[in-house]
Design goal:
43% strand; four-stranded antiparallel beta sheet; Immunoglobulin-like; single chain; 8 strands; mainly beta
Length: 120
């Protein structure tokens, strides 16, 4: 995917989980992946990680839900496929929050754990 023209690749910045990693996003196919290293494992019955995609064509208060996911115990690195709930015109940033088990329709962003600006 990285070798495809037009595919964006950005590193996570400000990961409060003491983690690192990157985002790969193909705007034409509306698909992408998160690579996370060193993120804290979560208990899915208590909380879930949730991806948010900030779209230049949408209000920043309502980023596109990119899906909920878990980081299993004992895994230093995980690769998570993105599942955008809506089409994304132009991704300008990606964020990960910690939410209740079912995820959130609109996040209060009380626990923002990673952010990546897309430089487009």
């Amino acid at each position: 995917m990285l070798a495809t023209s037009g595919v964006e690749h950005v590193a996570w910045g400000g990961a409060s989980e003491k983690g690192a990693g990157d985002v790969v996003w193909d705007p034409r196919r509306q698909q992408g992946y998160l690579r996370l290293r060193g993120f804290v494992a979560n208990d899915p019955s208590r909380s879930r990680y949730q991806l948010w995609i900030f779209d230049a064509a949408r209000d920043d208060r309502y980023p596109v839900d990119g899906g909920v996911f878990d980081v299993p115990a004992g895994r230093d690195e995980v690769v998570i496929p993105m599942h955008p709930a809506l089409p994304v015109s132009r991704a300008v940033a990606f964020a990960i929050t910690v939410e209740r088990p079912g995820g959130a329709v609109v996040s209060a962003r009380e626990k923002l754990v990673a952010f990546a600006g897309a430089g487009t």
